[in-house]
Amino acid sequence: MKGRCEYVLLALALVITLILISFNFDSLPSLPSIRGSSEHGTTVSKKYAVVSETFSDDYVPGALVLAHSLRRHNSKSGSLPFDLILVTFASEQYKNGAEKHLSPRALELLENAGWKIKVTDPIKQASFITPSRFKNNLSALRAFEHTEYESVAHIDSDCLILQDITEPFEYTKGATKFWAAEHYVKPNTRRFNSGVWFIKPSKETFDDIKNSRFNKANYDLNLNYPINNLLIKFFNYDRGLLPTAYNLGTNMLSSGKQDLEQWDATIEHARVIHYLEAKPWHKEACSALMDKERCEHAVRLWVNEWEMVKRELGVGKDDFPRAEWLF
Length: 327
Hints:
This protein is of the alpha/beta class. It has 8 helices and 11 strands. Helix 2 links the parallel strand 2 (about 50-55) and strand 3 (about 80-90). The relative contact order is 0.13.
């Protein structure tokens, strides 16, 4: 009889516990909007972060190569000194399927490569910005929101890392909070390409730049490159100058003799190649206007990294059916 009572009491206690758990479930905190692998969980344990963005499977090869090359050239004692954060949109934010979004397999590959996926809302362009290919690029400003880090680098997903890039993280701790490389095609103009920059993150700065996008005077350089305009205008006389080696753009290869000479002087010690215009994962990776020999060399550097990515992550033809030439 005593044993039967004990079983009844235990069963009653279990039922009460389950009821309490169910009752309190709704009061549990919601999960953060960052998802990632076990190595790159939601707990921030590093001082620095690299932020990039990808909005469709078409750019995933670039993001995979970027992560791999960052790891290969910047790992200290087997681990990166910074987190990798990739900004994208939720699939439901793409109206009626009119735009592409990241497939489940693409998300899996990106997380396996080390990216922490940050699902966020688009930052809409001002109504007078019409080129459709730039409609999502203000999402790069999300880098300023990551105030949980001391310093953040934004690097476009069409970049390849060739050497260590950690030094400029320290620069942002001084009086100058924004660092970018001078425009390599038009030097001495205080212009820069927005593909690579290092910042001291600030919510106030994020809000100020975001709000400035509705003022047409902030686009006096070229309406075709909205984020370049906003950042140049905002940081014009309050930014640090990085060497061209931190953002060596392939558009130099179609800009004339002077820029070809600058390319030759920089490529051997370049830290970042930025594949502007044609992308190295496209079938036609070099345009007719580009210097063929130099362009093919730059593309080979990217393809070599891609071959390592394929082996290490098990990437196959079925993962990128629209880019069969990569396999």
